[in-house]
Amino acid sequence: MLAADVIEALRAAGATDLVLTDRDELDILDADAVALAVAECDLLINCAAYTAVDAAEEQEALAHAVNATGPGILARAAAAAGARMVHISTDYVFAGDATEPYAENAPMTPTGAYGRTKAAGEDAVRTSGADALILRTAYLYGRGGPCFPKTIANAGRERGALSVVDDQIGQPTWTRDVAALMVRLLEADAPAGTYHATSAGRGSWYEFAKEIVASAGLGDIVSPTDSSAYQRPAPRPAWSVLGHGATEALGIEGIGDWRERWAVAADEVLA
Fold first, then answer.
1. What pLDDT does 126 receive?
2. DSSP H or E segment with residue 181
3. At 9, is the secondary structure helix, strand, or coil?
4. Maximum distance among all Cα pairs of the chain, rounded to whole angstroms
5. Confidence band, pLDDT 50/70/90 cuts, at residue 264
6. R_g over Cα of the chain
7. Residue 88: which H helix or E strand, with range?
8. Range 177-199 average pLDDT
9. What DSSP string runs through 147-172?
């Protein structure tokens, strides 16, 4: 979902000679193949991830391979080639028990398998010697794949009434905005480190769902509930609000308020 918008943003910024690979063409666990693929590159962007949060509880070894071992191999190859790297991470590296936005340097405290593997991936990239930007994002949606807005709009059309949790708070974020922020960081030659790529503001899944059904013309069909109504194998962070101090310190334009950005994105995402 994110990769397509990253490619589009890079091309719009004038990037040429892009080498695009997917898992059928490059196994990120094959160190020799990765080294060969990266050898002539000056920038490596890793959008690969195991993102099945619930399934990761039963498949943590597989999730670790994709989310931690693979990024470490990519990062070491980037370091050997002298290439910059961008690695995508997640709010799930935090427990979600805070009351203020998480700073970029806050200790990682994952509570589930998915979060543990993503935290391990961040550590692997940091210790690789690569000139790497780690971008954490959250509540991601976009045109290119399944996402919360599409699920809500489809369910609303089919069922007519929806209950959505109001005790999980985050920052709904458009993939186009993440890609654009990534380009701004690269163009500014931002120093290696961790950056948060989420919208400004904060809102619950319930609040986001209300915006979605309004955009879809479905009326007032969403009611609030709490997380106890949905028992899932993996824990969900109650608080996924990320601070943007690192980009602000560099004077780099961040992403706008999540409601304003959804208003811009809605027609494309729900098409």
1. 99
2. helix 175-187
3. helix
4. 55
5. very high
6. 18
7. strand 84-90
8. 99
9. -HHHHHHHHHHHHS-EEEESS-EE--
Cα–Cα distance, 11 to 18 (Å, whole number): 9
Q: How many residues does the chain have?
A: 271
What is the spatial distance between Cα 194 and Cα 190, in angstroms, rounded to a whole number? 10
Backbone angle region of 82, left / alpha / beta, with phi > 0 → left and psi within -120 to 50 → alpha: left
Tell me the pLDDT tens digit for each residue of 124-134: 999 999 999 99
Amino acid at 181: L
Per residue in 190-232, pLDDT (tens digit) is 999 999 999 999 999 999 999 999 999 999 999 999 999 999 9
Q: Is 2-146+171-200+243-256 a domain of CATH 3.40.50.720? A: yes
Q: Which residue in 114, 139, 141, 195 is the catalytic one?
A: 114
Rounded average pLDDT over 149-165:
97
The two tokens of residue 196 are 């948060």
pLDDT of residue 67: 99
How sure is the predictor about 90, in pLDDT bands with cuts at 50, 70 and 90? very high
Buried b (16+ CB within 10 A) or exposed e, 215-243: bbebeebbeebeeeeeeeebbbbbbbbbb
The residues that bridge with 89 in the sheet, in sequence order, are 136
Name residue 134's beta-bridge partners: 87, 194
Residues 174 and 99: their CA atoms lie apart, in Å, by: 24
What does the alpha-carbon distance between residue 158 and residue 254 come to, in Å, rounded to a whole number? 36
Active-site residue 141, yes or no?
no
